[in-house]
Amino acid sequence: MPLYHLILISLIQGITEFLPVSSSGHLILLPGLTGLTDQGPVIDVAAHVGTLLAVITYFWSDVRHILHGLPQVVRGQFDSPSARLLVAFTLATLPVMALGLILKLSGLSDALRSITVIGWSMLVFGILLYWMDQRARATRQIEDLTLRDAWILGLWQALALIPGTSRSGITITGALNAGFNRKEAAKIAMLMSIPTIIASGALTSLDLIGGTVPLRDTAIVVAFSFAAALTALSLMMRLLSRLTYTPYVIYRIGLGLTLLTIGYSGSLGF
């Protein structure tokens, strides 16, 4: 795969992963809009690995705090805040893992990679994000996260397997609905991405081992997506202290309507 193609994929993934606009949806659209070959799910996952490293780097203090609960969990002790959060984030990953495995084994994951699916997802879940953002009670902190919250947020996150939904966007939507403020909702969504991306990477590890994609390509994508994601994440978290999610919603609705028009008209080869 040409170097410029790999860098383009990395920048798209890095910039859009932590914005509630669906990074995977943009990556799926890339071949049809540019004429470039479909990068395939393995390169998609490599781009997600770069963003995984970025979120771990940015939220390292929170990640370290949660990991401090691991020895206690192993001993069957769940009374500390670290242990409770570790169990909660693990629980939140189960729905998306189960549904993701079903979609992969059934072949439905490939069938969902269409412009009309992405368009409707952009539109519907964008409107839902706006509604939740406007009515959010915004009083709870991450320390208030319960196992019930984690399971429900895990169900919200599983919806992100529909291309165009946005994993961060739908999880933020669920967290806002549960009463977390904007920054805490974003933090929860980002921390939930860590086990989810790890599970996704494990699911496609056989493709990487099989050599279907050169290791050089995956390394380039990981490096560039890491740099782009860390920059975008830092900017978004700073802006959330004084902005709502409305700008992202406007973008989602505009792009969704455009994609639906293209999809149903049959233009651009979709």
Characterise the protein shown here.
The protein is an all-alpha fold and 270 residues long. It has one domain (3-269). Helix content is 76%, strand content 0%. The protein has 14 helices and no strands. It has helices at residues 3-16, 23-34, 40-58, 60-67, 70-74, 81-106, 108-111, 115-135, 147-158, 167-177, 182-203, 205-209, 215-239, 246-265.
Structural class: mainly alpha
The backbone outline, from C-alpha atoms, is: globular
H/I helix tally: 14
Largest sheet: none
Number of domains: 1
Low-confidence stretches: none
Task: Please provide the count of β strands.
Answer: 0
Query: What is the ordering of alpha helices and beta strands?
Result: HHHHHHHHHHHHHH
**Beta-strand residue fraction:** under 5%
Short descriptors:
76% helix, mainly alpha, 270 residues, globular
Task: Indicate the topology.
Layout: H1 3-16, H2 23-34, H3 40-58, H4 60-67, H5 70-74, H6 81-106, H7 108-111, H8 115-135, H9 147-158, H10 167-177, H11 182-203, H12 205-209, H13 215-239, H14 246-265
Helix pairs in contact: 1-2, 1-3, 1-13, 3-11, 3-13, 6-9, 6-11, 8-10, 8-14, 9-10, 10-11
Brief overview:
The chain is mainly alpha-helical and 270 residues long. It is built from 14 helices and no strands. Helices cover 76% and strands 0% of the residues.
